[in-house]
């Protein structure tokens, strides 16, 4: 114990503690009212605590921990690491809903900087990456408020942003801070951003961003841990931007830069991926003309000042959809994944069909944003076989780059040899060799290619969590298939991209418990 009687009052720690309490409560199958009754407080107080909106005494925290039979936080000089213990080998069952996309939410939060009116985003993924961007926004003076149920967020941008007060720590812990470049160059002639962080995926240069933004008059110098930006505005004239890399965040940065200037911008070799389309739909609500959505050529007529009150529902996340489908596939189970954004999953499902997966799909229906096409997918127990050709990602409409790692664990369940070619990232394939700890036959040809031979007789093991989000989840899903007990250590990175993944897998019948040491 410490010699203070309350938890820190800053927003980020309270939200982190609230999320831990929410996860532990749901893991115990308790409602907020039931927990409140055990603790001796009100349901509304538990709701505020779980949303990070209420300070807590150590006595209250102790009572909550006792009610949940879980050590929510520890005190002292050393921070205990978070781990997962998995009892694998069991069938999953039931239905689970896909949440809105993390990547879409991050881009929309950055884009909200352009709007002097009120932006309300609905069904926002409540994940670490989103919270870090919100911390940066709040440090700039932006008013960001979560709804009482924690699903919606309201953003109000002041007339003057406090760039000198930017949350340096939060900015360094998320690569998404790079997406402030586009919106800010429309408001400032000089500004600074902290070096960006993110997953350990090898060298991922920021140069494509800088190439994309130079036509707008942006120049960036790096030094002393900061990006120093200077802007020579180019209003009025038509600009044509040729992207040297059809990257999602690069495209989003260029789109936002185009949106904040008076004039027409044509962007070629643009990514038409799901999060880019979400951004374009939002900009249209702001009154910005965007032509060519879903194609690789965009024509944007921007405005230097936008003041509109808008509501937007981000589209569902195809990567989360793939994650949940994979859980059913590798455990040879029958589960239904609802609200799957089919436009961004067609290649994945076609590849799985080639591998022998049996699945059924409902007729299409529209998401809340009235743009994203959704279906419900039920996977059935199947005898999988290796595909004839290699599996590799491509920019949309190809197989999603972030979905490729899931095919590694699926290939390990298939009969035959599969070549996985992860040409995008320099180091991600290396992390997937951790599947060998659980019994898979995975051979690394080079930093980009894997030979995987199946089927695998999975067995439990202890594995340190890879320092990259998707490989980390792949290892967790393999543990669901592995007979016996497995331990996945240092799992904090999973919270960067998934909201309550452990609890949601438990709802399908998985046996997973968290612990710290």
UniProtKB/TrEMBL annotation:
One of its GO terms (cellular component) is cytoplasm. Belongs to the EPSP synthase family. MurA subfamily. Cell wall formation. Adds enolpyruvyl to UDP-N-acetylglucosamine. CDD domains: HTH_XRE, UdpNAET. Residues 21-75 form the HTH cro/C1-type domain. GO terms for biological process: cell division; cell wall organization; peptidoglycan biosynthetic process; regulation of cell shape; UDP-N-acetylgalactosamine biosynthetic process. It comes from Labedella populi. The keyword Transferase applies. It comes from the Bacteria. Its EC number is 2.5.1.7. Pathway: Cell wall biogenesis; peptidoglycan biosynthesis. SMART domains: HTH_XRE. Transmembrane segments: none annotated. It is found in: Cytoplasm. It catalyses: phosphoenolpyruvate + UDP-N-acetyl-alpha-D-glucosamine = UDP-N-acetyl-3-O-(1-carboxyvinyl)-alpha-D-glucosamine + phosphate. One of its GO terms (molecular function) is DNA binding. This is UDP-N-acetylglucosamine 1-carboxyvinyltransferase. It is an enzyme of class 2 (transferase). Keywords: Cell cycle, Cell division, Cell shape, Cell wall biogenesis/degradation, Cytoplasm, Peptidoglycan synthesis, Transferase.
């Amino acid at each position: 114990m410490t010699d203070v009687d309350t938890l820190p009052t800053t927003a980020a720690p309270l939200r982190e503690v609230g999320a831990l309490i929410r996860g532990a409560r749901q893991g115990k199958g308790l409602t907020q009212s039931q927990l409140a009754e055990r603790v001796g407080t009100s349901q509304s107080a538990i709701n505020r605590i779980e949303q990070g909106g209420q300070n807590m005494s150590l006595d209250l925290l102790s009572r909550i921990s006792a009610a949940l039979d879980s050590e929510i936080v520890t005190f002292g000089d050393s921070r205990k690491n978070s781990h997962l213990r998995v009892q694998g080998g069991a069938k999953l069952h039931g239905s689970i809903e896909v949440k809105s996309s993390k990547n879409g939410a991050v881009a929309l939060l950055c884009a909200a900087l352009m709007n002097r009116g009120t932006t309300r985003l609905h069904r926002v993924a409540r994940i670490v990456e989103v919270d870090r961007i919100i911390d940066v926004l709040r440090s700039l003076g932006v008013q960001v408020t979560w709804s009482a149920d924690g699903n919606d967020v309201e953003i109000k941008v002041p007339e003057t942003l406090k760039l000198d007060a930017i949350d340096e720590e939060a900015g360094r812990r998320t690569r998404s801070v790079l997406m402030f470049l586009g919106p800010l160059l429309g408001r400032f002639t000089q500004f600074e951003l902290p070096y960006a962080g993110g997953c350990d995926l090898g060298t991922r240069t920021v140069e494509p961003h800088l190439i994309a933004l130079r036509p707008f008059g942006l120049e960036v110098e790096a030094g002393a841990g900061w990006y120093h930006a200077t802007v020579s505005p180019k209003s009025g004239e038509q600009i044509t931007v040729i992207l040297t890399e059809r990257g999602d965040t690069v495209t989003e940065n260029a789109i936002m830069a185009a949106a904040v200037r008076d004039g027409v911008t044509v962007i070629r070799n643009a990514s038409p991926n799901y999060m880019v389309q979400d951004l374009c739909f939002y900009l249209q609500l702001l009154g910005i003309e965007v032509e060519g959505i879903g194609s690789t050529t965009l024509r944007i007529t921007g405005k230097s000042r936008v003041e509109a009150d808008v509501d937007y529902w981000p589209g569902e996340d195809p990567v989360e959809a793939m994650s949940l489908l994979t859980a059913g596939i590798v455990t040879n189970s029958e589960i239904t994944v609802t609200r799957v954004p089919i436009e961004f999953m067609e290649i994945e499902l076609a590849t799985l069909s080639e591998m022998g997966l049996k699945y059924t799909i409902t007729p299409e229906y529209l998401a809340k944003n009235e743009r994203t096409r959704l279906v419900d997918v039920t996977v059935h127990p199947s005898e999988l076989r290796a595909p004839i050709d290699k599996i590799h990602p491509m920019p949309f409409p190809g197989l999603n780059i972030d979905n490729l790692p899931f095919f590694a664990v699926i290939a390990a369940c298939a009969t035959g040899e599969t070549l996985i070619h992860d040409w995008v990232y320099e180091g991600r394939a290396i992390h997937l060799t951790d599947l060998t700890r659980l019994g898979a036959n995975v051979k690394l040809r080079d930093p980009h290619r894997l030979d995987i031979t199946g089927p695998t007789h999975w067995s439990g093991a202890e594995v340190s969590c890879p320092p990259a989000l998707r490989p980390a989840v792949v290892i967790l899903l393999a543990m669901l298939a592995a007979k016996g007990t497995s331990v996945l250590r240092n799992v904090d990175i999973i919270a960067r991209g998934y909201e309550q993944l452990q609890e949601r897998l438990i709802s399908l019948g998985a046996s997973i418990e968290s612990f710290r040491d």
